[in-house]
Design brief:
TIM Barrel; 2 domains; binds zinc ion; single chain; about 475 residues
Length: about 475
């Protein structure tokens, strides 16, 4: 029986009453939370149990990043300051096509460490090549993840996909996803789940969309898809189908609560109502929008979606499109971005941003019963944030959550527990060779650049 007592910190529970417990403790048995309360009451009941001191720290539920490409960890810097067309077809699709299984493995290990450093304990991966290598890395790093295989079976006119990433038809895409599910769903003590994924609506036939939804229903999971990413994306969908993305999905009769729409940046009021009526979820990727000019923040109808009852959670997306992995930044950007857009200082208070990074994330991956808060019976995924960091001081009762959203950064995360296991302690990874993972990421990234010969060059001269 594996037990752990996280004790002595200020526990931000995110439970139904939104309790914050001073001098609190969280007791864990076999990966689940068995008690949350005052340390003085809980500690005596767990003599001899492994302890993780949270003195001087804030204990939070682990963040849930609902849109993150673990395969793109070696693509940092290859798709900056470019158009969407260049991003897809000149940079990232060729990168995807060139990835070996080993590249993906080291990419996912490297991304995994960055996710943990940011306090992210669970991420939804919308798919790339070699997802089995992502699964291996997730298992080793100790994260929780909803992984997937990207599927795509057609191209907009004049924009062919690299042959090596294209799915082998609808049947091939379904068979490959089934194989991934059979091999990895529920593995690593249940930390790995496998979902369906349609890479992007611009590259999917109606048959593929229907087949992936049918498989998701059969296996009781979600379908991750990039949709309404930006104006270019919408224009391509409209050229092919005559409709904007959400209206197009509605016309196919496939809108359900199993969709996790990545970005959903450019949608109409009518489409907001459709997303809400069918219970689909949205991954808002504000940092990615800032980097890649999607319009999600200023034009994304995020308040309207939430007002209509849609679950909107947060995604860091990738180091090739954000390029930062920092959930504190995403919370800052959603709270600040909406304030700036609407020029109203009271919209999106800090507490709402923290809920989006935790509770809403759990809802988006259909895991609200298991994740998202520190409560009896939930999986023990939690994060320690240094309350004595210069970012957080001075700290008052009323400013604890605002300081987390407006002042803290990933550098303030010191320890991380996933499924009751300490995976990062005092900023070190006890089970992993951090330096080797960094060096392999650099080496594999350099090898990829040599193979790819992308149209990228320094704009300033080197000597
Ligand atoms: Zn994405």
């Amino acid at each position: 029986m594996a037990e752990l007592l996280v004790t002595g910190g200020t526990v931000v529970t995110l439970d139904a009453r939104r309790r914050i417990i001073r001098d609190g403790a969280v007791a864990v048995r076999d990966g689940r939370i068995v008690e949350v309360g005052k340390a003085a009451a809980i500690e005596p009941r767990y003599p001899g149990v492994e302890r993780l001191s949270a003195a001087g720290h804030i204990v939070l539920p682990g963040f849930i990043d609902v849109h993150h490409h673990a395969t793109q960890g070696l693509a940092k810097g290859i798709a900056d300051d470019c158009t969407f067309w260049q991003w897809c077809y000149e940079r990232i699709f060729p990168y995807d096509a060139a990835l070996t299984e080993e590249d993906v493995y080291w990419s996912a290990l490297f991304v995994g460490l960055e996710l943990l450093r940011s306090g992210i304990t669970c991420f939804a991966d919308p798919g790339g090549p070699h997802p089995e290598a992502v699964a291996r890395a997730v298992a080793e790093v100790g994260l929780r993840s909803v992984i997937s295989l990207h599927t795509w079976d057609r191209s907009p006119a004049g924009r062919p996909l690299p042959e090596s990433v294209r799915s082998a038809g609808v049947d091939g895409a379904v068979a490959a996803t089934r194989r991934l599910m059979d091999a990895w769903d529920g593995k690593a003590d249940g930390r790995i789940r496998v979902s369906c994924a349609v890479r992007t609506l611009t590259n999917a036939s109606p048959e593929l969309i229907r087949a992936m939804l049918a498989l998701a229903r059969e296996r009781d999971t979600i379908v991750q898809v990039h949709t309404a990413v930006n104006d270019d994306h919408n224009r391509w969908v409209k050229e092919e189908t005559g409709l904007t993305p959400i209206n197009y999905l509605a016309s196919l009769g496939v809108l359900t609560d199993r969709w996790l729409f990545a970005h959903c940046a450019r949608i109409s009021d009518e489409e907001v109502a459709l997303v809400a009526r069918h219970g689909a979820k949205v991954a808002h990727c504000a940092g990615s929008s800032f980097h890649s000019a999607y319009g999600s923040v200023a034009h994304g109808k995020i308040p309207q979606l939430i007002e209509a009852g849609v679950t909107v959670a947060l995604g860091c997306d990738a180091v090739a499109s954000n390029n930062r992995i920092d959930m504190f930044q995403e919370m800052y950007l959603v709270a600040g971005g909406q304030k700036d857009t609407h020029r109203i200082g009271t919209v999106f208070p800090a507490e709402q941003a923290l809920e989006m990074a935790t509770l809403r994330g759990a809802e988006a991956i259909l895991s609200a019963d298991e994740l998202g808060s520190l409560e009896l019976g939930k999986r023990a995924d939690l994060v320690l944030v240094d309350a004595r960091s210069p970012s957080m001081v001075p700290l008052h009762e009323f400013s604890l959550v605002p300081n987390l959203v407006y002042c803290a950064s990933k550098r303030d995360v010191t320890s991380v527990v996933v499924d009751g296991r300490i995976v990062m302690q005092d900023r070190a990874f006890p089970h992993l060779d951090e330096a080797r993972i960094r060096d392999e990421a650099q080496a594999h990234g350099a090898q990829l650049m040599a193979r790819l010969k992308l149209p990228v060059a320094s704009r300033w001269s080197w000597e």
